[in-house]
Amino acid sequence: MLLLALDTATPAVTVALHDGRDVIASSSQVDARRHGELLLPAIDRVLAEAGLKLDAVTGIVVGVGPGPYTGLRVGLMTADTFGLVLGVPVHGVCTLDGLAYATDLEGPFVVATDARRKEVYWARYADSRTRVTDPAVDRPADIAEQVRGLPAVGAGALLYPDTFPSAHEPEHVSAAALARLAAEKLAEGGELAAPRPLYLRRPDAQVPKNYKVVTPK
């Protein structure tokens, strides 16, 4: 097994290789505006670090969000393209699940990432491997009662200390955690999600309502 894991659902552009036993190379850079520019060089970098070529990869793992439209689709399109070219399966993993898995927390807690527009993408977990609510997008004040008293991780939690007073790192997801989680589930014979995006809301850029199409005569 050689899994190539990647995620662009948060400001982190993160890539890792997992050989079936553990992560053998990884790279993470935080830049919310350069996902498309940074992802392919990061993939080249981790392959070079591991001394491997892309054709050695036997499966792709991609974070499916939730996340902003533009950043998220960079990772998903790259994963789909590599899967098609290499003829290998593409597995989707919820980005929030990757963040939760990296915590090793045993009790109930919350993962919240920055959704912009003064909102967070969030979900509740029973432990680092068990999500108990579907991913959602809300204003922090609107979910204060649901998360009261629970530890929280993620950039969204760190941004709103009034709602998440016990927030701490990790701030962004790492592909290393995604790879470990995916490898663990595959080894157990479990199924992973389809590589389909969890947008949860419409993209920021939309066609104006009164837009008129002009065609040449």
UniProtKB/TrEMBL annotation:
Its EC number is 2.3.1.234. Residues 32-144 form the Gcp-like domain. GO terms for molecular function: tRNA N(6)-L-threonylcarbamoyladenine synthase activity. Coiled coil: none annotated. Keywords: Acyltransferase, Transferase. Signal peptide: none annotated. InterPro entries: ATPase_NBD, Gcp-like_dom, T6A_TsaB. This is tRNA (Adenosine(37)-N6)-threonylcarbamoyltransferase complex dimerization subunit type 1 TsaB.
